Q: What sequence folds into this?
């Protein structure tokens, strides 16, 4: 093998081609934010385990199920979750799992069990689980905004014609 250096050419901002001795070695694709195709999906959370559901939702919000996945570009889909109040947890988590938040005042730590959260705001249970699995920062917040969670069986996104996604 010769000691000639590799030659890298830039074909625009989104593709890089590396040549070695005039032969093509690799071609890296990078998704552009304006060309990403985003679909709408609807998921029924009835009887689904919270962690397993949240893992798959986070994966699809990031776009890791697509061939054109790029870590620094939001390539994920929109997801509508229905029946968040009927999500399941294993073991004694229904009574033992605690959710904490702080009001901002001194001594303002608040806690609630899983049962209390489901009774008060069932959407937050799935939102908290999914948000913890997404990247932290502006990109993760953009991915999280594509998640729509509803406690009941009705949603107001019929105009987007969501496809049923079985998880």
A:
């Amino acid at each position: 093998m010769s000691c000639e250096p590799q030659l890298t050419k830039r074909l625009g901002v989104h593709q890089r081609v590396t040549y070695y001795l005039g032969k093509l070695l690799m071609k890296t694709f990078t998704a552009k934010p304006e060309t990403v195709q985003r679909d709408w999906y609807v998921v029924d959370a009835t009887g689904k385990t919270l962690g397993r559901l949240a893992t798959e939702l986070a994966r699809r919000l990031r776009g890791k199920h697509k061939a054109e996945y790029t870590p620094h570009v939001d390539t994920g889909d929109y997801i509508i979750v229905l029946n968040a109040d009927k999500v399941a947890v294993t073991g004694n988590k229904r009574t033992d799992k605690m959710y904490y938040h702080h009001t901002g005042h001194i001594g303002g730590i608040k806690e609630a069990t899983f049962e209390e959260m489901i009774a008060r705001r069932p959407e937050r249970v799935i939102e908290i689980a999914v948000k913890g699995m997404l990247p932290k920062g502006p990109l993760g917040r953009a991915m999280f905004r594509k998640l729509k969670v509803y406690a009941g069986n009705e949603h107001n996104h019929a105009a987007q014609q969501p496809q049923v996604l079985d998880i």
Remarks:
- The mean pLDDT is 91.
- The chain has two domains: 1-30, 35-164.
- Residues 50-62 form the longest helix (13 residues).
